[in-house]
Structures are given as C-alpha cells and as structure tokens.
Amino acid sequence: MRLDPQRGERIDRSRPVAFSFAGWKITGFEGDTLGSAAFAAGKRVFSRSFKYHRPRGLLCCSGHCPNCLMTVDGVPNVRVCTEPIREGAVVEGQNVRWSLDFDFMSVTDKIGGPFTPVGFYYRTFIRPRRLWPLYEKFLRSAAGLGKLDEHAGHSRRYDTEHRKARVLVVGGGSAGRAAALAAATTGPGVVLVDEDASLSALQLDGVEVLAPARALGIWEGGLVPVDAGTVLYRFRAERIVVATGATEQPLVFPGNDLVGVMLPNGVRRLVRDFSIKPGNRAVVLAADDEGLEIVDDLDKAQVAVSRAIDLRETKPFELVAQGSKGRVRRLVVDGETIDCDLLVASGGRQPAYSLLAQAGARIEFDSELGVFVPTELPPGVEAAGSVTGEGCSSNALPAYAGKGRCFVCVCEDVTTKDMKRAIAEGFDSIELAKRYTTTTMGPCQGKLCHLPSIRLYAQENRMYEAAIGTTTARPPWAPVELGLLAGRELTPARRTSMHWSHAEAGATIQWAGPWKRPYAYGEKPEDEVRAVHESLGVIDVSTLGKLFVEGPEAVALLERLYPNRFGDMKPGRIRYGVLTSDGGRIMDDGTIARLADDLYYVTTTSTGADAVTAWFEWWNAVWGYEAEIVNVTGAIAAVNLAGPRSRDALQRLTEADVSAEAFKYLDAQEIEVAGIPTLALRIGFVGELGYELHFPSPAGEYLWARLLAEGARPFGLEPQRVLRLEKGHVIVGQDTDSESNLYSSGMSWLPKLDKDDFVGKYALEHFAQREEKERLVGFTMEEDVLPAEGAQIVIEGLPAGRVTSARRSDAVGKVIGLAWVPTDRAESGTRVEIRVDRLLRGARVTHGAFFDTAGERMRS
Amino acid sequence: MSFLLSCPFCGLRPVDEYAYFGEVTTRPGPSPTLRELTDYVYFRDNVAGVQREWWQHRIGCGEWFLAERDTRTNAIEAVFPAGKTA
Q1: Exposed, middle or buried by CB within 10 Å (0-12, 13-18, 19+), for A97?
Q2: Which residues does residue A788 pair with via DSSP β-bridges, in sequence order?
Q3: Helix intervals (H) in B1-86
Q4: Buried (b) or exposed (e) across A567-594, using 16+ Cβ within 10 A?
Q5: Counting C-beta atoms within 10 Å of the first and last residue's C-beta, which end of chain B has fewer, N or C?
Q6: CB distance B64–A763 less than 8 Å?
Q7: Would you tell me how many other CB atoms lie within 10 Å of the CB of residue A823?
Q8: A-to-B residue pairs, Cβ atoms closer than 8 angstroms
Q9: Which H or E element spans position B71?
Q10: d(CA A552, CA A556)
Q11: How confident is the model at residue A126 (pLDDT cuts 50, 70, 90)?
C-alpha cells in the first residue's frame, strides 16, 4: 500500500510500469525497484531459503542479503530490491518446486531438521560410495540458488576498460562525497563509485560519479576493478578512499528469519524512497540510536508501533518471534506476547571493512564498540566515515537463547545449533568452523553474518571476540557476473599482405598459430603438389619470422646462439640452423643468410618469431654483444616460388642473372623482381628448384599477381606439408617436441662441438656420448592406409612410439610419414606396426628423403 | 599479481606489460658435470625474500632488464638495465 506523496520519494506516480512477478501482473512506478513495486502490491515472500526452503521476504532492501534473489528475464540471482523496475520484466522465484508461497521442498524444514544437521551430506550420503553420483544430483537440485540457462550463450556484450584515477572514492555517502570534493580541490582525476543507482544523477564539482557501480576488491598496485554492469573498469588509483559505511547487523533470536522481520534501513527505504506502508503493527528492537530512529518513520507511515525496545536498557531473557505460514505474527518477550506483522530488529552497525582488509589493513575487535574496526591502513589507502567505526556499535546484544531455530547466516541456512555442533565436534578455529558450516560463505559474503558468527563462537567457547579475530575477506566483495570477468571474446588474427588475394581465389583459410593461412586453393591439394613437382607453384610464406641481426659482433652472437657455424660463411650464402636450449632441446629452426660481414638475415618458424626474438634479445642482454636484433616479420612479405620452371619465371621478372651458374643453391642475392627490391634466397623446403623471395609487405598483392601471371599455381599449407614430407624435412614442434634433441632427431651432423661455447653445447656433449632411447625416422606403409598423426607404433602388443606426420604421396606412390621409434627399431628397413583404426598395419623404417633422395631437383 | 613495476627506460607500468623470465642463474663454465648442468637447467633457488630476476618490457620498449623483488610482498627494491652479468 502506498502512502500519500511525500518529499524526497523516488517514484514518479505519473509513470506506471508493469511487469510480471512469479506469474502475477504487477504495476509499479518509474523509480521503483522490482522489489519495492512487488512489496507495494502486497507481495511478501520473495524467495525460498537455501537449505530448508523457508519462505523469506525483504530484509535489508540494500542489495546485501540473499532474501530477494530472483531470476529476472532469465538471469539468475538478481537482487530485486535494488534492480530498477522495467516494463515487461519477467521475475521468477528460484530454488522452488511449485511456487514461492507453496514450495514442496519446504518439507525439509518440517521434518528434515533433525536429519539434516551441518555437514549431513558428508556423513549421511557417503555410503554406499557408488551411489554418490545419484545423491549429488538430488542434493544439488534440492539446495542452491538460481539456475543458469546453459544454452543461452552470452546475452550481453561485456567490455573491459583500463582507467587511471588520482583518487578513487568507494562509497557515495556523506563521508565519501566530502572526501571526493576535498580531493577535487587539489586537481583532476577524482572518481567516486557507488552501488546505488539513484546516485547516477549526483553532481559533484570536479568529481566523476560512477553509479550504479561496485568496487569488487583492492589488489596490489592500487588496482580496483569496478563492476558497472556490462563494463568492468580496471582502475589504477594512486590513492583510494574507502567510504563503504557500515552494515546493519541482524539480531539472532528464534524466528529471526520470518517474513516480516526486517532491518531498520530496509524499512526506512520502503517508507522514504518508495512511499510504502511497510506493515500495520510493528515492534522495534534495536541496539543503537540509528535503529531506534525508525520509530519516527513508522509513525509517519501510519504504522502502529506496539513496542520499541532499546536493547541497551532492556536485556530480555527470552526473545522469540512466532508466526504462521512463515510470516511473523507476534513477538514473545520474557513471557509477554506482542502482536505484530512487522518486526524491525537491529543488532547495531558493523563497519563494512572488507575492501580495506583486502588491501592489507589490520582488522581488530573494538570491545568498547562491540564491532571490528580497521586499524593500520596500508599506504595509499584511506578510510572515511562509518567504515572507520565512527558511530558504529553493536555492544548491547542479548545472549543467544530461547527455543526454535535462530539463523546466524540466512544465506546458507546456518543456525546457532549448527555452529554449536561444529564447535562440539572440534572445529576449534573460526576459519575451520566457517568452512564446515559455510557460515559467511553465501551471497552476502559475511556482510550480515560475520559478526553474529564470531559473537556466537566467542560465547560458546567463552572467549573474547578480540582473541578470535576475523575470517579472511576475499574478493569479489559484491557478486559479479562471470561474463563480466571473462570480458568480450576477442581472438586477434594475423593476416599477410597477400591474404585477400588468397581469399578471393577461393582458398580454404585455416588458423596456423596466430595467423590465418590458406590450407589449399581447391578441392584437391594433390593437384597443387603435382604443379610444384612438374611445373611451377607459389606459396605465401610471409608468416615466417624474419630478423635482422646487425653489428660488429653479430657473428659472435649467432655463433653462440646456434650449434652450427656462421663465421666461415661468405656474404651471399645461406645456412640452415636449429636453435637449442641449454638443456640441449630443439627450440626452433630456420635459415641464416649472411648479407654482409656484419649483417645477417635470420628466418624462424611461423609460430616462433616472437619467442626467438625475445630469446635472441635476452641472450644478447646477458652477453652484451655489440649487435642489434630487429624483428621485421610484419614489414617483410615472402613467397616461395618453386618448381622446375621457377628459374625461367624469375628470370622473366628480373634483370639480374639468375642462371644456375650465377645463382647457386643456398645463395642469397638482393635483386629487383618486377621492380620490387627483393632479397632472393635459393633454398628448398619443398624439395624442388625454388626461390624464397623476401620483399616489402606493401608490395604483397602486386608481386603475388605478377607471379601468378607468369603461370605459377598457388599452393597452400597442406600441399606444402606433403612436399616437405616427401623430402623428410622436419617441422619443429610437429615432428619434434620439448624432449627432442639433435641426435635423436637425426641431425647429429649439425652441432659443432669443437666451438668454444654455444647455447646447448654442454648438454649436447653429454647427449653425443649416450645412446638415445628413441629416434625420429621415416616410414612407408605396406598398405594404402593413412595413420592419424599421433597414431601408436606397437611392438609386441605395447605402444612403443608414435607417428608425428603422415601423408599419401603420389610422387612416392605410397603413404609416407615420420615417427618416433625405439632405437633398436630405427634401422632402415625394420618392420614396425602402426595402429590404424584399431588394426595393426605394417610399415618399413626409412632414413632420409622419400623422393629425389639425392636432392638433385632442388640443386639443379 | 597486479603490482606496478618500473622499467628502467619507460618508468612505472602495470606488471601485465612485462614478461617474467625467472631468477638470475649462473651458467656453468666449460665441461660441467651432468649434475652441475642439471642444476643450472632445471633447478631454481625459489627464495622467500629478495631475488634478482629477469624481466622484459614486452608490451612496451621490449628491453630486458633486471629487478630485485621481494617474492613475499612483490616490493621492488631496485631495477637496472642488464650489463654483462653472465
């Protein structure tokens, strides 16, 4: 029922808003919350409790307690007491079988009590063990909160924003506002955040106000994530002012969770903000002036106040709330029964210190005030207002007594009996008792139950609260949607400067590490393979990592990074190189071209560019050579022009002499190709006569088109994999792993152990003297079946090795591949068996290339 | 981990901008025993206290440098560019 219009109310009575609440059509006003509108329409039960399915109604109206958690438009666990009203919203109860007013599962409250003490599911449902999955399914559906729609996907788009603040004020109460205004006088960069939506219109000179927004925690470095709905602000603040105020504490007495038992602030909000008459006959129980002041509000709202008890003056021995159908009907105080339908009960106010505790403040019990207060704040963090303990007290509480259930923690349905039982069972530290009973671990995160839990614990153990201390305050301080923490799903893709030419040509594009690359250009990759063998193909290899290493000591640096030698190379020559770690393991491979005495051009694998650059730079920082490393992977595009006709095609595009005599295998020459300055490397990853052309990226599409015009057929990654496999060329990371070394991988010719020092030398010296357990070899299948990559090599019924690459080769006429086999099976010609589709198939071990074994084609 | 780290070249930045490369180790001299080599490759001191370690300002200037950090508090005692330290 609404009161007459009054000053300061937030509702706009000229603008009705309709929505559905548990199946009922309800009309509220603009400015209402979903909860206040439902309450005004006479709704009292908002949820069913976690474990006992007891009816629960509005308690705090401040977004703290779990009592109004409902599912709104499919989003579970929304606190409707603070969720703004919106037209057409669908609000539903959760953790309910049938309806909020009649829940089948409330049988657990009636009969389950004695059978469901704290920790019962660990004890009662433990045997027989095999039935646990069944028990678990039942328990999970019987207890809990809302359900996520697993098929809904992301309903909202979440973003993360990194921001800086000179001063970040958390809390927009009077202390927070004063602190923000004071900070604003010393300069810009002051931000105030508050969870109350009504503060969004707040104007403070020189202060940016974010509302509704919640600070989730304080991390080191002044990092404060702020939940603003669909945006997560990651604030870095030089100074943080915590003005989170204090939280009213529920009183613990039998029947304290009945619908109609409310905290004074909750009642105050209903009366002042939403002009709602909260009940007809009220009793007020309070332990501080703030709580007692609610009597004035009740008078104004024409609620008859039967009794107001100041707990500082009166200490009732017996205090029991009784009700029917879950709603409070009367309060019994020391034998006297007072009828009421609203019981306003407050146990005083506790500073909301959690953020300060996370930041590293010391939290101590102030026995004079009866509350925990922050002391010794960390540098850069300040506290203002009630959070310091100012004006707070919770000292005059009656001892927990009386018959019936007293709830210490309404979130998790933990009663005083549960706590006592935990203590009796020997959980002799508050942290252990917390984990066992789950008190303070529910949706309010201890805001309403931490102090009562500790007080009860102290009372039972005859200890002082100060000696017990607090439990650890952990982020997030307020509930946050997981989607907000995950942020928007973004996967950056790298594309080469020729990418759109491939896409227009109809190439099948696939991920290759961070890159998007053509898999093949047509349905038949084998046709692209044949084109390279028989005439001319071209592949975009711009994804190769490319580094310049330059300087008087460039050669010394490379000599020490690679196991092989570079000092004896003449400018204009190329050498294959494999990087090893100091553990002797293979890290990456590529080619090193010496362009001048003090200038080298290094290529790496497509996925290794960044790691190799960092690796080079790190060692150079260690050794301090006079050499510069420049990663030009993005600036330089590259193609591999390959096939018997590649020399003729290249000659038509350049004035330089690229004849077999003038441009030999493993030569590097700087020439112009179709007018583009190009570094041409004569190397043969795919095993045919070929040239790797490296040139400025902007010319990518142009040069690609010119090469196609010369009759080159584009080929993709898949044909390239077939071609290199025919040559037995290893792909680092596919055929090798973090255990592979140069000896086991069949590259014992590569390391030069007589060099003074290089990364991996000492390990390789040891490897050179020992027998490797397994070796990387080639194999050909006896039958025309294709093993999967990763297929097992089986010896005497046991897995003994694995296939790393396998393809059908038209040029060889067989299925070929690479595999790791035990050393005693590594001899050429040895028969091994490979599991293909659950059958064992025979294969023969080979060494070296499968096709053009002498390498005449690429050297021609 | 969200502390601020000062790059010797760029100044104070969030730690997310950096790549961590572990504590500074001493590479053994020529012909180490297998034990010396294994110690160097696989074992770390993992001290609870101030440790000298490698960092790279990866999403920044890209430079490698050394920092002395208290592993218990993430307090940075000193940062300096790498000299010939190995």
Answers
A1: middle
A2: none
A3: 34-42
A4: eebeebbbbbbbbbebbbbbbbbbbbbb
A5: N
A6: no
A7: 13
A8: 55
A9: none
A10: 9
A11: low
Q: What is the pTM of this model?
A: 0.84
Cis peptide before A128 (omega within 30 of 0): yes
Asked if B2 and A582 come within 8 Å (Cβ–Cβ), the reply is no
Dig out the tokens for A649 from the structure: 């095609």
Q: Kindly report the nearest CA distance between residue A221 and chain B, in angstroms.
A: 4
- Å between B78 CA and nearest CA of chain A: 16
Higher-pLDDT residue of A13, A119: A13
Q: Is residue A739 less than 8 Å (CB to CB) from chain B? A: no
CB-based burial label for A388 (10 Å; 0-12, 13-18, 19+): buried
Q: Give the gyration radius of chain B's Cα atoms.
A: 14
Average pLDDT over residues A76-88: 92
- Give the model confidence (pLDDT) of A15-38 as tens digits: 999 999 999 999 999 999 999 999
| Interchain pair A614, B19: CB under 8 A | yes
The CA distance from A418 to A426, in Å, is 13
Interface of A with B in 544-583 (CB under 8 A): 581-583
**What ipTM describes this predicted complex?**
0.95
State mean pLDDT over A655-662: 96
Single-letter residue type at A40: A
Do residues B39 and B24 touch, judged by C-beta distance below 8 A?
no
> Using CB atoms within 10 A of its CB, is residue A165 exposed (0-12), middle (13-18) or buried (19+)?
buried
Cα separation, A576 vs A579, in Å, equals 10
Res A108 pLDDT > 80: no
Summarised one tens digit per residue, pLDDT across range A720-764 is 999 999 999 999 999 999 899 999 999 999 999 999 999 999 999
Residues in chain B within 8 Å Cβ distance of A160: none
- Whether residues A223 and B37 touch (CB distance < 8 A) is answered with no
